Amino acid sequence: MPKSIVIAALLLAGGAAALHAQTDYYMRLGVTGASTLVHDQIVSELDARQSLAPTLVLGGSLRVMPRYGLGLEAALTSGGYSREENGISTRIGTLRTLAVLLNLDGPLFGPLRWRAGVGTMSYLPSDDAGIFLSGGTTRWLVGAGVDYRRRAFSRWDLLASARYDYHTFTTDALRARNFGGVQQISRIGVSVGFARGTR
Amino acid sequence: MRRLTIGLATILAAVTAAACSDISSPIRSNVYDWRLVAPKQTGGFDTLSFQWPASNQPVRYWVADTLDMPARVQRALDVWQGVFLYREFRGTVVADSSTADVIVRIGSPPASPGVPLGAFAPAFAAAFAPDCRGATDLDIRPGDEGHLFLPVRVYIEPKFDGTTAGESDCLDLTSIHEIGHTIGIWNHSPDPSDIMYGDPIVSAPSERDRETIERIYHVTPNVVPVAR
Lengths: 199, 228
Ligand SMILES: [Zn+2]
Known about the structure:
Chain A is built from two helices and ten strands. Chain A is mainly beta. In chain A, a hairpin with a 3-residue loop joins strand 2 and strand 3 (45-50). Chain A starts with a helix and ends with a strand. The mean pLDDT of chain A is 90. By secondary structure, chain B is of the alpha/beta class. In chain B, a hairpin with a 5-residue loop joins strand 1 (36-39) and strand 2. Chains A and B meet through strand 2, strand 6, strand 7, strand 8 and strand 9 of A and helix 1 of B. Residues 124, 126, 177, 181, 188 of chain B line the site of zinc ion.
């Protein structure tokens, strides 16, 4: 993980302690879908794809202006990935991903807020094999989304979110096998959960 | 703040647009003929191609527990598994020979391997003089859907007692070569720089070996494994 993210996380945590009243925390559960991981052709065309993955999102945001916040969000997915060739899908392993985003958030309209940021995306395969023969990889990530928030309990709000993010993908194993360029990957996630803090 | 928002949106759009093409896969045309030409019961010849179906994986290898052979065969399996980008083949060393798909023994193949009637049993022998040699026996019945009778039997034989450095290297190399036959390379490469050359001198699969085994697992086979 780049140092900038670590420093931001520490600042946020430190800031959260000092500015408790201005800090927002949230946790959400949902699913994430991603576009093709690798497109290849050995004899006929084949794709390596990730399955729809259950997702856990943890985050926090610090008010830096009356209506805007600076936050850190971590999204962990855990699912399978498979190769698809000639209409046949074969599962080839378990793949976890961890996306960490440094976000800005602000009001959109009504109960909706936008959120956008940059960060890193780490691929954490269960086995060092195949396209991950040399292990996982970490890539830069940009993302944006919308949060819907409404009061549910005295101290907790209901939070529903939609996210889009984008990164490019390759691995050492693919480069070693003379793959050129990078695969563009878009992901969409939806999730619901709870938030606590500033209203 | 509005400027900041617009700036962030611009960065997002710019990064997305910057990557204008997807990953490009290499052209894999550097292969040798892996198929086995076998006589048909009805006359003439058949060209046979084999891959282990996903339902038979991981393929179970029983290995004689001598001369460190289980570890050598496991390393050979790791080498071949490392060739595949999409985990098309997986094998494992097992302790129970009665459930094995492939049996690896130390010694020379028997003179009469007990071939089922009508079957064809090629033995890929390679003379690695002076240190060791190996052979893989395949009991095959060609047909519209050809059958490979299990278990496949592999024999690896050191020249002396298997303890010299030269023999140790030869056992490693021969393990990779013979495991290559068991996973579907049913022929020999004509090029000495390939591990699947008939009398191999290199110690690891070449790019041509890699592209050949990759190809095998992406063409339709005409032989399926069956229990004997
Ligand atoms: Zn051979």
